[in-house]
Each structure stands twice: as structure tokens, then as C-alpha cells.
Specification:
Layout: E1 5-10, E2 31-32, E3 36-37, H1 40-48, E4 53-57, H2 63-69, E5 83-86, H3 102-107, H4 110-114, E6 120-125, E7 128-130, H5 134-144, E8 148-154, E9 164-168, E10 174-179, E11 188-197, H6 198-209, H7 218-228, E12 233-237, E13 242-244, H8 248-258, H9 261-264, E14 286-287, E15 292-294, E16 297-298, E17 303-304, E18 307-309, E19 312-313, E20 318-319, E21 324-326, E22 329-330, E23 335-336, E24 341-343, E25 345-347, E26 352-353, E27 358-359, E28 372-374, E29 379-380, E30 385-386, E31 391-392, E32 401-402
Parallel strand pairs: 1-4, 1-6, 4-5, 8-12, 14-17, 15-18, 16-19, 17-20, 18-21, 19-22, 20-23, 21-24, 22-25, 23-26, 24-27, 25-28, 26-29, 27-30, 28-31, 30-32
Antiparallel strand pairs: 2-3, 6-11, 7-13, 8-11, 9-10
Length: 403
């Protein structure tokens, strides 16, 4: 039985600009928003949009991500026909290859897509925070009679040179594509979310693979080739919340925006568009009698006896009495001990901040400023001081200072 639309989710990225947070973790598996991981957003968008067949292409540090996805049950994607499928590179009769680029990753899984004989394929990114109805996007694609459509957002002109840009006419037909140009002709930034007619995508993937000079990339190769051939290409304007959380400051900022849903545009409490995740299985959180809480998000299994302001605490976090946590993202099962001060920083999973240690500081002036980052499983020793721009990968000894 053919599927109208199959989703292919690119989730193999290393996320090198997240440094300490992706040492042992694929970027889509990075925790976000208290109880989620980044990949929860495109998976939830799929099921909320009526897409029940998703291929997830993994590569870098896949263990945690594969374990988290499991059979897809949290997202209602545990299906006998369709559902979620993890698609790592594998050995074939002709040999084996890592995914060499975004287009090559899809090319290596043509057989998976053909199994469902879809009319359309949507290509998604596994490393963005976005709430989007893909069924609206598909309807736009059909109405335009498009062969390729890309979701775009208007960005400030002063930032346009940092993006891949679509130049489109008054009917949204794409006439030109610019990859991070010095002199932008448009401020329509590609979100890296594409819909193709499957027959067109398959043709161009095969041709691209046969070109020894190709980088096997959608932005650098497939899209320019479609333009060269005069294909029917359209830009779909998206006006909801979208954020590329590819850097430490952007990830910290997106988490902070969760605490202000009325103004930021990201509402994780929206019953009409739920973001689903795997249940931690932990007990409810516990708030001590002397605890001070102000505009924070506390999730399952937390034990809070200290002060927490404008912060997000993931499951199983402990904040002992006398500890202060402000403007911070503290990931699962981390320990903030008595007298410790944690400000304007990201603490990865299973980290320990010992007594009277200081991590991070409020930025001077306006803007996000520098965000201190502590890697998973790291211990910051008693009385140690970690500066606001520090990136800590290994244990810090008692009383030591790192800037």
C-alpha cells in the first residue's frame, strides 16, 4: 500500500559547535526544554501532521539517539507498516560508505523510500527547534504544482549573509539560490526543510551520485541543479517558531525562551500541538520547605532545597540547600551542592558542582553574552571558580579557577 508522503529525518550531525555537549552525543539527542531532546520536535511535528512513516538517518555517536528512539512508541510511530526506522550507514554488495553529505544520505536509502512508493518525500533536519504543520506545507506544494518546495523564513537583512537564501518572485516561485552570499538579494532563509516529488528527487539523487565532483549536498548540488534545469521550485513562507540551536548561546537562549511562551513564540504547554517525548519513569519532583523558586521549569524526579530562578531543570536534578541556580540550563541527574552558585550556563547530564563552587556569571550589558558550559559526567571541585566563557570537558580540582 503506497504512502502519500514519507519523511526522511537527517539526524547524523556531529554538532561540533556545541563542543562539550556533543562529545559523546549526536546533536539531535541533546536535551532541551526540561524533558525533551531536540529530535522530539521533528518527530512530534510528523505525527501531529499525519505522517506515519519516518526514516531517521543516524551516523555520529548514535547509541544514545538509537536507544531513545527505540520502536517509536512515544510518538505513536510503532507501526506494523510504516512507523519509525533508524537508518545508519550499512555494508552493501558494492562496499560500505559513511554518509558523505545530505544528498548522499538520502541516496543510500532509496530502497527504503521505494518500499512505500510515495508520491512525495519531505526532508527534515534533526537539529532544529521548530513547531510546524507539515500538512500545510504539503498542501502548498500541491497547489503550486511544484516539483520541489522549501520552507523559508524572513530574517533581518543584516543577518541574511549567514544563510542559504531563496530569491523568489511574487508567486513564490524560486528564481535563484544564494549560499551565504556577501551581497544578499533576498532575506528568505532556507530552513533546510524540503518537499520533493519522489520521482524528481530520485532522478537528481542518482545523477548527483554519478558526478565525481559533487559534494553530495542538497544546498550545494541538488538545489542548484534543479534551478539549472528550470524545475518548478517554490518557497513556502513559515511564520512560526524556528531556531537553529547549533551553538551554545543559541541553545541556551532557546531554553530560556521556553520560560516565556507568551512572548517567545515557543509554547510547550500547547494542548493542540503537543511535543511528545520518552517518559523518564521517575517520581514527581520534591520542593523543600526553604526552597525559593521563581519562573523556572522543574521536571520529574528533581529534589530542590535551594534557590532556582529563571532556569530549566531536567529530570533527577538535585539543588541542595544554600545553592543558587539562575538563568541556567541544568540537564538530567546533575547535582548542585550546598553553597554552589550556577549562573548563565549550561550544565550537561550527570555533572556535579561541589560545595561553594561558582560556575558562570551574569553578562555585562545587553545581549546573551558568554555562556559557560560543563560537559556530561564532569565534577567541579569544592570552591572552584569557572568563568563565564569557560568550556569544561574534564574534572576541575578543589579551589581551581578556569576562565
Amino acid at each position: 500500500m503506497a504512502k502519500e508522503l514519507v519523511a526522511m529525518l537527517l539526524a547524523g550531525g556531529q554538532g561540533s559547535r556545541l563542543y562539550a555537549l556533543t562529545q559523546k552525543l549526536a546533536k539531535p539527542a541533546v536535551p532541551f526544554g526540561g524533558k525533551y531532546r531536540i529530535i522530539d520536535f521533528p518527530l512530534s511535528n510528523c505525527v501531529n501532521s499525519g505522517i506515519d512513516t519516518v526514516g531517521i538517518l543516524t551516523q555520529y555517536q548514535p547509541f544514545v539517539l538509537n536507544e531513545y528512539i527505540g520502536n517509536g512508541q512515544p510518538w505513536d510511530l510503532d507501526r506494523l507498516y510504516g512507523g519509525v526506522h533508524v537508518l545508519p550507514p550499512y555494508q552493501k554488495a558494492s562496499g560500505s560508505d559513511w554518509y558523505k553529505g545530505t544528498a548522499n544520505a538520502i541516496y543510500q536509502n532509496i530502497a527504503f523510500i521505494e518500499r512505500y512508493d510515495p508520491q512525495y518525500v519531505i526532508i527534515l533536519s534533526g537539529d532544529q527547534i521548530c513547531k510546524q504543520d507539515y500538512s500545510d506545507f504539503l498542501e502548498f506544494h500541491k497547489q503550486k504544482g511544484a516539483e520541489f518546495s522549501v520552507a523559508v523564513m524572513e530574517v533581518p537583512w543584516e543577518d541574511a549573509s549567514r544563510f542559504g537564501l531563496m530569491v523568489a518572485d511574487e508567486d513564490d516561485k524560486i528564481t535563484e539560490f544564494q549560499e551565504k552570499p556577501k551581497e544578499p538579494k533576498s532575506n528568505l532563509a532556507s530552513m533546510g526543510i524540503y518537499i520533493f516529488n519522489w520521482d524528481i528527487l530520485k532522478k537528481y539523487l542518482i545523477e548527483d551520485e554519478a558526478d565525481p565532483t559533487s559534494e553530495n549536498d542538497f544546498g550545494n548540488n541538488i538545489i542548484p541543479n534543479l534551478l539549472r534545469d528550470g524545475r518548478k521550485m517554490y518557497a513556502y513562507h513559515f511564520n512560526g517558531y524556528w531556531k537553529d540551536v547549533g551553538t551554545i548561546p543559541s541553545l541556551w537562549e532557546a531554553n530560556m525562551e521556553v520560560l516565556d511562551p507568551e512572548h517567545s513564540g515557543i509554547n510547550l504547554f500547547d494542548e493542540n500541538w503537543k511535543i511528545y517525548s520518552r517518559n523518564s519513569g521517575m517520581t514527581g519532583h520534591r520542593i523543600g520547605e526553604n526552597a525559593v523558586l521563581d519562573n523556572c521549569l522543574i521536571t520529574d524526579g528533581c529534589n530542590i532545597k535551594g534557590t532556582v530562578r529563571h532556569s530549566i531543570l531536567f529530570s533527577g536534578v538535585t539543588v541542595e540547600e544554600g545553592a543558587i541556580v539562575e538563568d541556567a540550563v541544568v540537564m538530567g541527574h546533575s547535582m548542585i551542592k550546598a553553597g554552589a552558585v550556577v549562573r548563565h550556563c549550561i550544565i550537561a547530564e550527570n555533572a556535579t558542582i561541589e560545595e561553594d563552587a561558582v560556575v558562570g556569571a551574569k553578562p555585562k550589558g545587553e545581549g546573551i553574552g558568554e555562556v559557560a558550559t560543563i560537559a556530561a559526567d564532569v565534577t567541579i571541585g569544592k570552591g572552584a571558580k569557572i568563568g563565564p566563557s569557560a568550556m569544561i570537558y574534564e574534572d576541575v580540582k578543589e579551589g581551581e579557577e578556569q576562565c
